[in-house]
Each structure stands twice: as structure tokens, then as C-alpha cells.
């Protein structure tokens, strides 16, 4: 219970900090906006998930994600696609491994950034997730059913320009929701934190 409260507080704090930063940036004098370009981000991704029913506490997974964003005209909107792959060798000290893959797509909105070289954004992505590893095998279906389920990522992040073609994803924080069978509520609420590099393409 305490871990769940701590995770919720961390997520709330991240969103409040992002909102405050965006409010400050929106008051800055706006500079001419360059024509947006397609982007590809390569990130390290950390996940903290609630434990299966009957297990103790939460557990961590780590891995990577590939994220592509395509401008919708000259607007602040982007069509975004994300593929994330994460693994842990032991779920909640059970000794059973878990590999979690997700594939999501949806809109991203780029918030005003004034003259600053940082680019905050908010996004809502939906798609599917797949669980593999010992904990997802059929004999353990009461812990986490295997197969493909609905998934969603809700959150945002901040990018830092390091040049016309290159940048850094300083932080991306999301609430990742999956619906794997656990024989109780078929619901997982996962804190997802990513950071990496961003490449831009086009003339």
C-alpha cells in the first residue's frame, strides 16, 4: 500500500513540475518556430509495477524504447508511435522472470517553449502489450495471464535541443496501464520513466 502511495505521489509531483515549467515557458517571448521535422528517440526505460495478487510489494523492470514522432502539418500536434521492451529476472522476489513489451500509438501535443531550447510535450498513446517469461506461463495464469492485452501510456516529457538534428530526452514520465489477467482485477498500473537521445530528419 505504501509503495502504491509513493508511486502515485511521484507521478503527481512530476506532472505538477511539468505544468509549472510549461506555465513559466508560456510567459516567455515567443521566437519564430522552425518547421517541425520527424523525430526518432532511443531511450533507456525504467518501469515500476504493482506486484501480482498475493505477492509482496512492487517490482522494477528495465529496458529500452524506440519512439517516433511525425508532425501533422505546421501545428503543434505529432502522431507518435512507441515500442518498449523491459525485463526483470525476478518478480517481487518470486524468482520468476518477466519480459514486458508494449506497442502504442497516439497524439502528442508540443507545449509552447518561448526562446528556450527545451520542448515540453504531453501525449496519450494506446495499443497492446505482451508478457513473456516464467511468470506469464499458463501454469501461472492466476498470477499474470500470457498473450496480448490492451495497453495505454498517459503522460509527457521534456526534450533539450543540442543542434538542428540532435537532442536529448531529458525526462519522460508516464502512467502505463495494462490489462493482464491476475484473477483479481486484471489491471496493472505502472510508473514509466524514460531518458535518451532524439534524432531529427528532413530538410
Topology record:
Layout: H1 2-26, E1 39-50, E2 58-71, E3 77-88, E4 98-110, E5 118-132, E6 147-161, E7 166-178, E8 188-200
Helices, by number, come to 1
| Strand ordering within the main sheet | 1-2-3-4-5-6-7-8
Largest sheet: 8 strands, antiparallel, barrel
- Uncertain runs are 1-5, 27-33, 138-145
Give the DSSP E fraction (strand runs of 2 or more residues). over 45%
From the helix content, strand content and strand pairing, which structural class follows?
A: mainly beta
Q: What value does the Rg take, in angstroms?
A: 18 Å
**CATH fold label:** Porin
* Outline: elongated
Level of helix content? 10-25%
Compute the number of structural domains: 1
Succession of helices and strands: HEEEEEEEE
Mean pLDDT: 80
Please report the first level of CATH classification, the CATH class.
Mainly Beta
CATH architecture: Beta Barrel
* Ends distance: 51 Å
Query: Can you count the beta strands?
Result: 8
Amino acid at each position: 500500500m505504501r509503495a502504491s502511495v509513493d508511486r502515485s505521489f511521484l507521478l503527481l509531483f512530476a506532472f505538477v513540475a511539468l505544468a509549472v515549467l510549461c506555465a513559466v515557458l508560456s510567459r516567455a517571448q515567443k521566437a519564430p518556430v522552425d518547421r517541425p521535422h520527424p523525430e526518432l528517440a532511443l531511450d533507456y526505460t525504467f518501469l515500476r509495477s504493482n506486484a501480482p495478487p498475493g505477492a509482496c510489494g512492487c517490482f522494477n523492470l528495465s529496458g529500452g524504447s524506440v519512439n517516433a514522432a511525425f508532425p501533422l502539418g505546421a501545428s503543434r500536434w505529432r502522431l507518435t508511435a512507441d515500442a518498449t521492451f523491459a525485463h526483470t529476472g525476478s518478480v517481487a522476489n518470486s524468482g520468476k522472470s518477466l519480459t514486458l513489451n508494449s506497442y502504442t500509438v497516439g497524439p502528442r501535443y508540443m507545449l509552447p517553449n518561448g526562446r528556450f531550447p527545451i520542448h515540453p510535450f504531453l501525449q496519450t498513446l494506446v495499443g497492446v502489450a505482451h508478457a513473456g517469461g516464467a511468470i506469464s506461463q499458463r501454469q501461472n495464469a492466476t498470477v499474470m495471464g500470457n498473450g496480448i492485452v490492451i495497453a495505454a501510456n498517459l503522460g509527457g516529457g521534456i526534450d533539450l535541443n543540442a543542434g538542428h538534428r540532435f537532442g536529448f530526452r531529458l525526462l519522460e514520465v508516464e502512467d502505463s496501464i495494462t490489462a493482464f489477467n491476475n484473477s483479481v482485477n486484471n489491471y496493472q498500473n505502472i510508473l514509466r520513466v524514460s531518458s535518451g537521445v532524439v534524432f531529427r530528419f528532413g530538410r
